[in-house]
TrEMBL record:
It comes from the Bacteria. GO terms for molecular function: fructose-bisphosphate aldolase activity. Belongs to the class I fructose-bisphosphate aldolase family. InterPro entries: Aldolase_TIM (IPR013785), FBA_I (IPR000741). This is Probable fructose-bisphosphate aldolase class 1. The keyword DNA-binding does not apply. Keywords: Glycolysis, Lyase. Pfam families: Glycolytic (PF00274). It comes from Candidatus Woesebacteria bacterium GW2011_GWA1_37_7. It catalyses: beta-D-fructose 1,6-bisphosphate = D-glyceraldehyde 3-phosphate + dihydroxyacetone phosphate.
Length: 339
């Protein structure tokens, strides 16, 4: 338990956050396609290597969530990625869920798979160097959804995953994502996220999950993307902190937000105001994928000659989010921050 507590705290160390580089083959293929690059195993390895070998990121990045394939890959010098990251003081982690499927008899709702064989997979991942794990559940807002059945079923699966992960000696990152897809108002997102988080922590308690040895990865409280409402930082911060305060136990060391489809600038700005607002018992950090990588991919374009410039862009985004963790980010810094 002491080890779990230490790793959890190290992942949310002040000024640092997590890089989510755990895109599935399908997801990264879409992102590569957007820059005109075929998604081959070696192309994925080269891209992840570009991110992991960026000079200086250990100042801002505490951990990296890897995909199964990536955890088994190595640098050009044949050093396994997990070992390489650990040598730089960056904690390697692993995505362990197997994605979502339709929830039978509940149209428009999803349940996450992956509990079968999870204990054995976690044991292998630990041997490969992983120190923490992540599992994502998806909650959709729509007409008459989410239902209590969907919320509670996903909460139960998250709790079972978290208990198995801790038994294996890996810190679980619990990710119940309320999607921002839809036309709903910010108040609806607030109500749904509160309901979801209350259910999740009730189930975590039922399964006796050690709260100081886990992290929560939630969404912002945010209006639906098609609602026509602007996601103002002040509204996002106020509503998000209110919901967390009403649903997240103080024993949890940190909250590592997902970007949920917001742009890199929007995500960093949200995080910044959350930390300025403060007054909470947890570290407020980040576990960003697209919000850290979007501009990096557009800079790289799959070309070797762009690699150094792309690394500078990744360093910049990591540093800006580190500043946001301290409430010291300003949008005008976007063009100022350099390696």
């Amino acid at each position: 338990m002491d080890d779990l507590h230490k790793v959890a705290n190290d992942l949310v160390a002040p000024g640092k956050g997590i890089l989510a580089a755990d895109e599935s083959d399908k997801t990264i293929a879409k992102r590569f396609s957007a820059i005109g690059l075929e998604s081959t195993e070696d192309a994925r390895r080269i891209y992840r290597q570009l991110l992991f070998t960026t000079p200086g990121i250990e100042e801002f990045i505490s951990g990296v969530i890897l995909f199964d394939e990536t955890l088994r890959q190595s640098t050009d010098e044949a050093t396994p990625f997990a070992k390489y990251l650990a040598s730089r003081g960056i904690i390697p982690g692993i995505k362990v869920d197997k994605g979502t499927i339709d929830l039978t008899n509940f149209p428009g709702e999803k349940i996450t798979e992956g509990l079968d064989g999870l204990k054995q997979r976690l044991s292998e991942y630990k041997d490969l160097g992983a120190k923490f794990s992540k599992w994502r559940a998806v909650i959709t807002i729509g007409e008459a959804i989410p239902t209590d059945v969907c919320v509670n079923a996903n909460s139960e699966v998250l709790a079972r995953y978290a208990s198995i992960s801790q038994e294996a000696g890996l810190v679980p990152i619990v990710e119940p994502e309320v999607l921002m897809d839809g036309t709903h108002a910010i108040t609806t997102c607030e109500e749904t996220t509160y309901k979801t988080l209350k259910s999740v922590f009730n189930k975590l308690s039922d399964y006796k999950v050690y709260l100081p040895g886990m992290l929560l990865k939630p969404n912002w409280i945010h209006p639906g993307k098609d609602s026509g409402q602007v996601a103002k930082d002040e509204d996002v911060a106020r509503s998000t902190i209110r919901v967390l305060g009403e649903s997240v136990p103080t024993e949890v060391p940190g909250v590592v937000f997902l970007s949920g489809g917001d742009s890199p600038v929007e995500s960093t700005s949200h995080l910044n105001l959350l930390n300025i607002t403060g007054g909470v018992p947890w570290q407020l950090s980040f576990s960003f994928g697209r919000a850290l990588q979007e501009t990096v991919l557009k800079t790289w374009m799959g070309k070797t000659e762009n690699a150094e410039t792309a690394q500078k862009e990744f360093y910049k985004r990591a540093k800006l989010n580190s500043l946001a963790r301290k409430g010291e980010y300003r949008e005008e810094m976007e063009k100022e921050v350099q390696v």
